[in-house]
Structure formats: structure tokens, C-alpha cells
């Protein structure tokens, strides 16, 4: 490996320098805040006003933030957990969860030999470099990642352009005027049960602000793979693109995350002003539970973007292969005239996974356009539902929507469901909906087999072809990993 | 090269092949003719290992190997190729990606190095030229939106790219106009080199004017009821299948 050769060429001084950078990065003082403060306490189980106050205090938040959390909490107390989604799980006891804990310290291991071989196999298939594998699985690392130095230079060039990219906790302190103006402005805490819960107890997340006229010069990931590990249970993300600004944001991490927190309830808010654009891509592969359906993450996310300005655009692309239960509807509120909303989704379920996902496109402005392309793949005993709302308001003169919703079944025991809701209040609007469901073609597999391609590769090819329209929306590197991920989650699902 | 001994096969529990015997040597072209539903495609599916077809008896040796023990992809890598009667569409996957994957799998199996992108491209260009294939077809999704003729031509193109030892052509002439028929046959004739062999399935004699068979066999109700030289094809063209059917009935009665 390159890394090792490079290391040998370096002087010992350089090595200790590098090590210092890495230490800084991973220690509590790391200035950019993407590695959350390392605290040793864990709050007792249960949720109360005191717990909310405690969380806010631990994070040294100003009074207004504490108040906002408390209001959310009081509102949440009056709410009922939603039951309309096509997912089934035992009732969650919200008093049996700890709402504040220090970032989980992974057990320190001495070498990769001590790591779960299953995990290593997955790393290998994803082509994750050896040093990163060590980091991800908690093996002490003494080498340096390229991304450390990249991160530093990267940060400097962002600052120059006036781009703010930091944690929400930091933004609350450093940029309170922006946070006050935008936090909860797209997803108010009154929105739904999980959004209220998140507002009360959110741990941390990313804050991005792109000022007027600035095109963010690089894809913003939630920091390279190494920094995306401890995002916590109740993540909160806020991205603002001012007039004429552009940013492409990549969320998630294609490496397998073994998190013991069962309930995840994140909130993501996007605000886009005149002529601005946000492209938001997600690859999610949290622990889906074992083959019998035991364990796994419940992923209850509220993601919403507001196209506030004219000619603004939001594009959501998601590849969902993980979690035991997914409840997720990235949405666009198309307020500005001529604004555009897009949703491209691949959702894969295997074994006993359940996914209820889709989008809401709310057309309010004139000549607003939305495109929805959803590809659902179900294998094993899983259940995969698309749920989408297209709403055309009465002032949305000339609004257009095109929805295409395709499902592929890999077995006879899985399910695919489509729940399209369409509400049109303006006669000049055009709404098109197309849906297909098909079983993966045995004739296709045989055809590829007959050309020397194994069944496993054949299935991957057919599935990748099926998802092509979505993958081509992903940034190149992400697309390659997404394809590999798909292969891993569908392993052994046919034949 | 290929030795088929008393092959019997069922489809959905129904006996379709009732004991087929056939010996094909390197350099030979055999034609299998017979009316619709006589089991020609079934034979092709059995030889390529389609799991919907259940072999209930008999044996097939392919260059001395027990063919029926191998799975479909291994047979393909060993050099067994079927030009499909109904080529299948694979949306989202380009012809080029598909062919590159297939070719590299076969090369890997033979212990050969993968082709570099440049070598691959050159090979594509060379073979496409033989068939007068529009190069845009190569970047299009496998068979998606292809005309009937384009699909058949694409099958022969794949044959030229993958260079199999044994080629099964299942009704490759159907749906082709006379020009396309000539191009496809030229492709096959150019590929013929004395080391490979062909089994040409057709129920019209037409194709055999272009691809000259060394032997012609008539398959009827799951049995080869008559074999001969290429003149048998002409005779069938002239008289239809009825006279053989009658002959067969007579043999059965005796
Ligand atoms: N996949 C299949 N499922 C059901 N029946 C089949 C299938 N394939 C072939 N058959 C039956 O087997 C018989 C032989 O068919 P086939 O081999 O396609 O004949 P040919 O190619 O000579 O026209 C026919 O009666 C046909 O209906
Ligand atoms: Mg046939």
C-alpha cells in the first residue's frame, strides 16, 4: 500500500507532526467541532424538562436555545407517535432511552485481527483503504490519513469565500443570528412527533451557510469518512444557500456503522433563496438487523427543503440500504416562482427490513416543476413502500410534476407497495404518475449466465441497470460506492 | 467436440425431448430442422443449462467434459454460446459494459489477462465492422429498443466478441430481411475456422443457403427422425414435413 511506503520515506519528525494533527483532530479540542466533545457522563434514562435543560447546559447553549428545546419538549408531550406508515415494530418506550451520552468510545483494539471478520469483509468489498479500516473499527492508528491535511486546506479555502461549514453546536454560539433566523423555519418542532423529539434533545449535526453569489468549490461531505462516525442519535442539519449560491452536500458514510442506538430521529432543513441551488445526496447503510430480523436501527427522519426564492432548486438523491425500519420523506416546498424540486431514490430492503419512504412536493409558486424517480428493491421477507404526495396549490399556475415509481422484487416473500397522493387545486397544472412492479427476470439472469457472467454478478448488473437513473445523479465517487453497497445488501438474495 | 447421448428432458413435468443422439466434430456445421414445438429450443436450453428444463436421462460430453454437471456460466466460459431466439433486454446496462464483463469473465476462466480498455475498443470496432453494426448500438442498453433485426445482429456480434468454440444458433434467421440475413450469415462464415463447430436451428431452409450445413437432422416430437446431408434440407423445403411424419408413423407401427 502507498500509505506504508510513504510512511517509510518520511522523517521521524514529520511523523510526529502528522500524529499531532491526527491527535488534534480526534481530541475534544478539535476546533472545527466535527468530532463532538468527549464527555464521560451518560444521562440517566428517561426524558423530562430537567434532562432537556441538562443537555443544553452540557453544550453551553445560550438561554434562547434552551427555551426553544423546552418548548419543543412540551409540545412533544402532547403528541402521539404516528402509526400511518406501512411499518411494524414493538412500541418504543421513550422513558427507557438515554438522551444524553458521550460519543461512544469504541473499544480500543490492537490490530485488525481483533475485528469482526464480517466487518472486514465488507470493508474489503467497499475498497476502503487499510488505514481507514483500522480507524473505523477502532484499531489504534499511527499512520496519517490524507484527508487530515486535505481537511485543513479545504477549511481555509472555504473561509476565504465566506462559507460557513461547522457543527450546529458551534453555529449556535458563533452565528446565533443565522441559527435563530433559520433553525426550525422549514421543519418547526410542531411538525411531527419525531421532529419535536429531535428539537428537544438533538445532539449535533452540520451547519452550512453559502453566502450570496458563491458557488461552493467542492462537494461538502459530512467530513470525510473518518469524521462521520459519531453523528449521534438525534442529528440536526441546517443548510442555507443565499441568492445565487450553490452547494452539493454529501451525507453519510458508506462504511458499515455499528451503532447500538436503536432509535435515530434526525432533522434536516434546507433553505434556498433566489437563483440558488442545493444538491443533497445521502447514502445510508446503518445496521439493518440480522437475517432473522433481530436488532437494527429505526431511522425516523424528517428532511425538508424550502425553495423560498424564484428560480431556486433543491435536488434530493438518496440510496437507502440500511436500517431495520426507515421512515423518511425528503420533501420540497416550492414557494418561489419557477423553482424546481427533484427526488431521486433507491431504497433496498432485504431479510426483514421495512422501508416506508418517498417524498412530498408542495407546489406553491408559479411554473414550479418537480421530478420524482423512485426505485424500490425488495428481497427476502422485506417490505418496501413508496409514499409520495404531490400537492399543487391554487396559485401554482403552470406547475408540473413527473413521478416515476418502479419496484423490483427479488423473491416471492417480499412486498412492494406504492401510495401516491395527489392534490391539485389549480387547473393549469400537469401531474404525471407512472408506476411499475416486476420480479427480477430469470430470463435476464439466464441470458447473462449464458455469456459467462455468474448469477451474483448478473443480479448486480440487472439491479444497477434498474437504478441507473438515480445513480447518475450521485457524485461519481459516491455512485461507485453506492453500487458496491447495493451488491453487499443483496448478496445471496436470488437463487 | 460435442457428443449428445440419449438426452431426455422435461419442461414443467412434460416430456419434451425423448432421447436425442448427436455427434458434432470440430469444423462441422449441423442443422436441426423441424416444425414449431418439436423441441428445438428445448435442446438449446438443455445444452446451455437453463434450470427451467429438467434433464431426466442421457449424457453430454463437451470436449470430453461432462457438460450436464457444469452450471450455465461455466459452460459459457468453456466455449458454449447460444444466439437466442428471443434476445433479452437489460435496461440500464450498456452493450459495452455487458460485453466487457462477459469477455473478461471468460478470459479469467481461461487464465488470460483482462483486455485493456484500448484493446477492448479496438476489438469492438473490428467486429462491429464485419457486421456493419452501427457503433451507437454498442453504447446503448443491451437490446433495449433494438429492432428484431438489430437484436439478432447483436447476438452474432457477441459471438464474434466472445469467440466461443461451439455455437448454437436458435432461429437466428427469423425476423431478418434478406440483406440482414446475408450479413448475419457472413458473420458466421467468417468466424468458421475448422476448430469451432455450429448447430444451426431453423425451421426454414432459407438460412441454409447462406450457412452451408454438413449434416441436416429433422427433429420431430422430441426425436431426431431423419438425418442426412444438405440435400435433405432442400427436400424438406420442397415436400414439407408431412412425408417424414408419415414415415415416422410407419416406423412406429412396425
Ligand atoms: N419454458 C417453457 N414452458 C412451458 N412449456 C415449454 C417451455 N419451453 C418449451 N415448452 C414446450 O415444449 C415444447 C417444445 O418447445 P420448443 O423447444 O420451444 O420447440 P421449437 O423450438 O422446436 O419450436 C412445446 O410444446 C412448448 O410448448
Ligand atoms: Mg424455438
Written overview of the protein:
By secondary structure, chain A is α/β, with parallel strands linked by helices. Chain A has a domain at 42-328. Chain A is 29% helix and 27% strand. Chain A has 13 helices and 19 strands. Chain A has helices at 2-9, 12-26, 49-58, 63-77, 117-126, 130-136, 146-160, 168-174, 176-182, 193-201, 442-449, 455-471, 476-489, and strands at 164-167, 206-210, 220-221, 236-241, 246-252, 263-264, 267-272, 277-284, 298-307, 313-320, 325-328, 331-334, 340-349, 354-363, 369-378, 383-392, 400-409, 415-424, 430-439. In chain A, the strands form 2 sheets. In chain A, strands 1, 2, 4, 6, 7, 9, 11, 12, 14, 16 and 18 form an 11-stranded mixed β-sheet that branches. In chain A, α8 packs across α9 (176-182) and α12 crosses α13. The longest helix of chain A is centred in the last third of the chain and has 17 residues, at 455-471. The relative contact order of chain A is 0.09. Residues 1-41, 140-151 and 222-231 of chain A have low confidence and may be disordered. With 254 residues, chain B is of the alpha/beta class. The longest helix of chain B is centred in the middle third of the chain and has 15 residues, at 95-109. Chain B has a 6-stranded mixed β-sheet with strand order 6-9-10-3-11-12, sandwiched between helices. Chain B is built from 9 helices and 12 strands. In chain B, α6 runs parallel beside α7 (178-191). In chain B, α7 links the parallel β9 (166-170) and β10. The mean pLDDT of chain B is 91. Chain B has helices spanning 40-48, 72-77, 95-109, 117-130, 136-139, 148-162, 178-191, 231-239, 242-253; strands spanning 2-11, 14-24, 29-33, 53-62, 65-66, 80-83, 90-94, 141-142, 166-170, 197-201, 215-220, 223-228. At the A-B interface, α11 and α12 of A face α2, β7 and α3 of B. The complex binds adenosine-5'-diphosphate and magnesium ion. The site of magnesium ion (MG) has 5 residues of chain B, from α1.
Notable features of this structure?
heterodimer, A: 495 residues, alpha/beta, eleven-stranded mixed β-sheet, eight-stranded parallel β-sheet, 13 helices, 19 strands, 27% strand, disordered N terminus, B: 254 residues, four-stranded antiparallel β-sheet, 9 helices, 12 strands, binds adenosine-5'-diphosphate, binds magnesium ion
Amino acid at each position: 500500500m502507498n500509505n506504508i511506503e510513504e510512511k517509510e520515506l518520511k522523517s521521524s519528525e514529520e511523523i510526529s507532526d502528522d500524529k499531532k494533527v491526527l491527535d488534534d483532530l480526534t481530541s475534544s479540542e478539535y476546533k472545527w467541532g466535527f468530532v463532538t466533545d468527549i464527555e464521560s457522563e451518560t444521562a440517566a434514562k428517561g426524558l423530562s424538562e430537567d434532562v432537556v435543560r441538562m443537555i443544553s447546559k452540557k453544550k453551553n447553549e445560550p438561554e434562547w436555545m434552551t427555551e426553544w428545546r423546552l418548548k419543543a419538549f412540551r409540545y412533544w408531550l402532547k403528541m402521539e407517535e404516528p402509526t400511518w406508515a406501512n411499518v411494524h415494530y414493538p412500541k418504543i418506550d421513550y422513558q427507557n432511552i438515554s438522551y444524553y451520552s458521550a460519543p461512544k468510545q469504541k473499544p480500543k483494539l490492537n490490530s485488525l485481527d481483533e475485528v469482526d471478520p464480517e466487518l472486514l469483509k465488507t470493508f474489503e468489498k467497499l475498497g476502503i483503504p487499510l488505514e481507514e479500516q483500522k480507524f473505523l473499527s477502532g484499531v489504534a492508528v499511527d499512520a496519517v490519513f490524507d484527508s487530515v491535511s486535505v481537511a485543513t486546506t479545504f477549511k481555509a479555502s472555504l473561509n476565504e469565500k465566506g462559507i460557513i461549514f461547522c457543527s450546529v453546536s458551534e453555529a449556535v454560539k458563533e452565528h446565533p443570528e443565522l441559527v435563530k433566523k433559520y433553525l426550525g423555519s422549514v421543519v418547526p418542532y410542531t411538525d411531527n412527533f419525531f421532529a419535536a423529539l429531535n428539537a428537544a434533545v438533538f445532539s449535533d449535526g452540520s451547519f452550512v451557510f453559502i453566502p450570496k453569489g458563491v458557488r461552493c468549490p467542492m462537494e461538502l461531505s459530512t467530513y470525510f469518512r473518518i469524521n462521520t462516525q459519531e453523528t449521534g442519535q438525534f442529528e440536526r442539519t441546517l443548510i442555507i444557500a443565499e441568492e445565487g449560491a450553490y452547494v452539493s452536500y454529501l451525507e453519510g458514510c458508506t462504511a458499515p456503522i455499528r451503532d447500538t442506538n436503536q432509535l435515530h430521529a434526525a432533522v434536516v432543513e434546507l433553505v434556498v433563496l433566489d437563483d440558488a441551488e442545493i444538491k443533497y445526496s445521502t447514502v445510508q447503510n446503518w445496521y439493518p438487523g440480522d437475517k432473522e430480523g433481530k436488532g437494527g436501527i429505526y431511522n425516523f427522519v424528517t428532511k425538508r427543503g424550502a425553495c423560498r426564492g424564484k428560480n431556486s432548486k433543491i435536488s434530493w438523491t438518496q440510496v437507502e440500504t440500511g436500517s431495520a425500519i426507515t421512515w423518511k420523506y425528503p420533501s420540497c416546498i416550492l414557494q418561489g416562482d419557477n423553482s424546481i424540486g427533484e427526488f431521486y431514490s433507491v431504497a433496498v430492503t432485504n431479510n426483514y427490513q421495512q422501508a416506508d419512504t418517498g417524498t412530498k412536493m408542495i407546489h406553491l409558486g408559479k411554473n414550479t416543476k418537480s421530478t420524482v424517480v423512485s426505485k424500490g428493491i425488495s428481497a427476502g421477507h422485506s417490505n418496501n413502500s413508496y409514499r409520495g404526495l404531490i400537492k399543487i396549490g391554487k396559485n401554482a399556475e403552470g406547475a408540473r410534476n413527473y413521478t416515476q415509481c418502479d419496484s423490483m422484487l427479488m423473491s416471492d416473500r417480499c412486498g412492494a407497495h406504492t401510495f401516491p397522493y395527489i392534490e391539485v387545486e389549480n387547473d393549469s397544472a400537469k401531474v404525471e404518475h407512472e408506476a411499475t412492479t416486476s420480479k427480477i427476470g430469470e430470463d435476464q439472469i439466464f441470458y447473462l449466465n449464458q455469456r459467462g457472467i455468474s448469477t451474483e454478478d448478473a443480479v448486480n448488473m440487472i439491479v444497477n441497470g434498474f437504478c441507473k437513473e438515480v445513480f447518475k445523479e450521485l457524485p461519481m465517487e459516491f455512485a461507485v460506492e453506492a453500487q458496491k453497497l447495493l451488491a453487499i445488501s443483496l448478496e445471496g438474495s436470488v437463487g | 467436440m460435442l457428443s449428445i447421448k440419449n438426452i431426455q428432458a422435461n419442461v414443467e413435468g412434460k416430456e419434451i425431448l425423448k432421447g436425442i443422439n448427436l455427434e458434432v466434430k470440430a469444423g462441422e456445421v449441423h442443422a436441426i430442422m423441424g416444425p414449431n414445438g418439436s423441441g428445438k429450443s428445448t435442446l438449446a436450453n438443455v445444452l446451455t443449462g437453463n434450470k427451467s428444463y429438467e434433464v431426466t436421462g442421457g449424457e453430454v460430453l463437451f470436449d470430453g467434459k461432462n457438460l450436464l454437471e457444469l452450471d450455465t456460466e461455466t459452460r459459457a466460459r468453456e466455449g458454449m454460446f447460444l444466439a437466442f431466439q428471443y434476445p433479452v433486454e437489460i435496461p440500464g446496462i450498456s452493450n459495452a459494459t455487458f460485453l466487457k464483463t462477459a469477455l473478461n469473465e471468460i478470459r479469467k476462466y481461461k487464465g488470460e489477462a483482462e483486455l485493456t480498455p484500448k484493446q477492448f475498443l479496438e476489438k469492438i470496432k473490428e467486429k462491429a465492422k464485419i457486421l456493419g453494426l452501427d457503433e451507437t448500438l454498442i453504447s446503448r442498453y443491451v437490446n433495449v429498443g433494438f429492432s428484431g433485426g438489430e437484436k439478432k445482429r447483436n447476438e452474432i456480434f457477441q459471438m464474434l466478441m466472445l469467440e466461443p468454440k461451439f455455437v448454437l444458433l436458435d432461429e437466428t434467421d427469423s425476423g431478418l430481411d434478406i440483406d440482414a440475413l446475408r450479413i448475419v450469415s457472413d458473420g458466421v462464415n467468417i468466424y468458421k475456422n475448422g476448430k469451432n463447430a455450429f448447430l444451426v436451428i431453423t425451421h426454414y431452409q432459407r438460412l441454409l443457403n447462406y450457412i452451408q450445413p454438413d449434416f441436416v437432422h429433422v427433429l420431430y416430437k422430441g426425436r431426431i427422425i431423419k438425418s442426412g446431408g444438405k440435400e435433405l434440407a432442400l427436400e424438406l423445403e420442397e415436400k414439407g414435413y408431412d412425408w417424414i411424419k408419415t414415415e415416422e408413423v410407419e416406423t412406429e407401427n412396425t
